[in-house]
Amino acid sequence: MKKIMIYVVLAMLLVGCKLDPKPVGDEGRSQSVSFDLICANEINILPISINGTTAPKDAFDFSIAKLKKYTTDNVIVHKNIALTLNESDINHFIHDFGVSNNLNMLQESQKELLREKLNTLPQNSTTIVMIYTPTLHFTRSTEGRSLRGIAFGKRADQPLNVVAYNKVNIDGAPVISKNQAWKIVLTHEFGHRLGVPANISHNKAKHCTSRECIMYSSPDWQSVVSVLLLNGMPYDFCDLCEAELKDMKQNCFMPNILP
């Protein structure tokens, strides 16, 4: 039996096998690819570091290169804003700011610093605020599920694209290195803001059903098999997600379509 399993694995490796996608089920949905970001004349990136937390430069540069690949390429990275908060206030600040641009958890001097910088940037969907943090949970309360990253949905009272990253959880990702984990999580959250997966055929709760896609949800044994034995790390979007992004990018160059 052991030999048979070895032969099966070898055969799968030789033919470049891909595991079946995760079933969509009741969580299937559709969404729109972001015309505003993909077709923007320029995209402004504002990193915010909480209590000295930052991303590895190599992983950050990797994610920016992916963002450029799927947009019109003009991405401007601004100088990092350093904030200091009590640990008990961090999650509240991230969620209040992410949902409604609320800065109430900050001290007055830090509010002025951040407001001054934000006022120099377009207050619309072409600005991405990246928050690096030592703690991050699913809800405003610290009782929520701990996350590696989150991309906040667009609302009328929050025109910015806000994404946040939990250094502790990313650094502690199983199987892969810290740098690999950062590359995947940074790019994954950009993917949420770009609006993929879009079609309900491969969108399960806003994540891709393909285990070979960087937009796949939480790791499971099938995705670990795919990474370790079959297809390597998912550093890019799958064919379906990539096609959705490229289709929108082609529309950017049609007459009268750019904002």
Characterization of this structure:
The chain has a domain at 33-200: Collagenase (Catalytic Domain). The radius of gyration is 19 Å and the shape is globular. Strands 1, 2, 3, 4, 5 and 6 form a 6-stranded mixed β-sheet that branches. The chain contains 9 helices and 8 strands. The chain is an alpha/beta fold. The relative contact order is 0.18. 40% of the residues lie in helices and 13% in strands.
Write a compact overview of the structure shown.
Helix content is 40%, strand content 13%. With 259 residues, it is of the alpha/beta class. It has a domain at 33-200: Collagenase (Catalytic Domain), CATH 3.40.390.
What proportion strand? Answer: 5-15%
CATH class of one domain: Alpha Beta
Structure annotation, total helices: 9
> Largest sheet, if any?
6 strands, mixed
- If you consult CATH, what is the topology of one domain? Collagenase (Catalytic Domain)
Q: What would you call the quaternary organization?
A: single chain
| Helix-strand sequence | HHEHEEHHEEEHHEEHH
Q: Give the overall silhouette.
A: globular
- How far the N terminus sits from the C terminus, by CA atoms, comes to 62 Å
Q: What is the helix content?
A: 25-40%
What are the low-pLDDT stretches, counting only 5+ consecutive residues below 50? 5-16
Radius of gyration (CA) equals: 19 Å
Question: What number is the mean pLDDT?
Answer: 87
Can you name the CATH architecture of one domain? 3-Layer(aba) Sandwich
Structural class: alpha/beta
The count of strands amounts to 8
